[in-house]
Amino acid sequence: MSADPALIWAYLTQGPLLWLTATLAAYALGTTVFRLSRGQSWANPVLIAVVLLGLLLTATGTPYATYFEGAQFVHFLLGPATVCLALPMHDNLPRMRAAALPILAGLAAGSLVAVASALAIARAFGLGGEVMASLAPKSTTAPVAIGIAERLGGQPTLTAVLVLTTGIFGAMVVTPLFNALGFRDWRARGLAVGTAAHGIGTARALQVNPTAGAFAGIGMGLNAVLTAILAPLILRLFG
Amino acid sequence: MVPALVTILTFQLIGEVISRGLNLPLPGPVVGLVLLLGAMRLRPGLAGWLRPVGQGMLAHLSLFFVPAGVGIVAHLPLLREHGLALLAAIGGSTVLALVAGAGAFTLVARWTGQEDER
């Protein structure tokens, strides 16, 4: 006697197993493509996994809330992994202390340009208040960005999407961009990508070079504070 | 592995309590990161002890962003309407911010004689 496939599907959609497995499988496929492409930037594992899962959710008519019930276990690990960024920072502490001034300069320039140029381009396209407020903190790590956007009158869920898009774009573009422009200092490359593209940029930096990874972690952490201060001021200039 | 995991989660927990308790602009995990960095300065053995688990987690850092990224499907109508403008703003500002950040770092490192010893 064979069971009705619809019943099996109904059972699977009630538990976290299906979407947890799908998330891990999509990411595993993404990393395989990344490896087969020999680490090409366009083969970003996050982008590949997000596209695959997005298509799967659309094809099966599964609401995002149902998906997230399974995927939340993966999402949860973002917190402890952020704490673990203390490790590469600890290893690079002497170099970071020696480079305190360049770090502050890179951070200030990157943070200011990220917010101001995003708002200027959005204004040129005629985007309005709520979208502008959601866009302003997009270079910071997701939980901070959402907090900032809420205070500015933006939409938290839209902010999350813009933050993720920024991270994926930054991670894809950083290596070819800096190679083309001839930036060879791993500290500068790391700090810039952590400042402009938060955790996803930091994850990319860790793949490329441990020093870049440590400086990216610093850029991400410090930019979370700086953007909380800068974003409201710059947004007022566009108000 | 379990004791290391407990340590990492405890730092996150303390960070979360401090962040919420003091209404800081920093999220709990970032406060936990700063606290762990301080603890590793005080107890040099801690870094080596946490390393196997910590490195394992960092190796898969980008995996942990996938569930939030899939949230894009919930915003398709808005993205259809403003997608081009938002992509231009994100793409343009990210390239400019990367160049500004790395450029300012490199310039100041040169002025202050802190160029990297490679």
From TrEMBL, chain A:
The chain crosses the membrane at residues 6-30, 42-64, 70-87, 99-122, 160-181, 212-235. The keyword Membrane applies. GO terms for cellular component: membrane. It is found in: Membrane. The keyword Kinase does not apply. It is a multi-pass membrane protein. Keywords: Membrane, Transmembrane, Transmembrane helix. Pfam families: LrgB (PF04172). This is LrgB family protein. It comes from Paracoccus salipaludis. The lineage of its organism: Bacteria, Pseudomonadati, Pseudomonadota, Alphaproteobacteria, Rhodobacterales.
From TrEMBL, chain B:
Signal peptide: none annotated. Its main location: membrane. The chain crosses the membrane at residues 29-50, 57-78, 84-109. It is a multi-pass membrane protein. InterPro entries: LrgA/CidA. Coiled coil: none annotated. Keywords: Cell membrane, Membrane, Transmembrane, Transmembrane helix. It is found in: Cell membrane. It comes from the Bacteria. Pfam families: LrgA. One of its GO terms (cellular component) is plasma membrane. This is CidA/LrgA family protein.
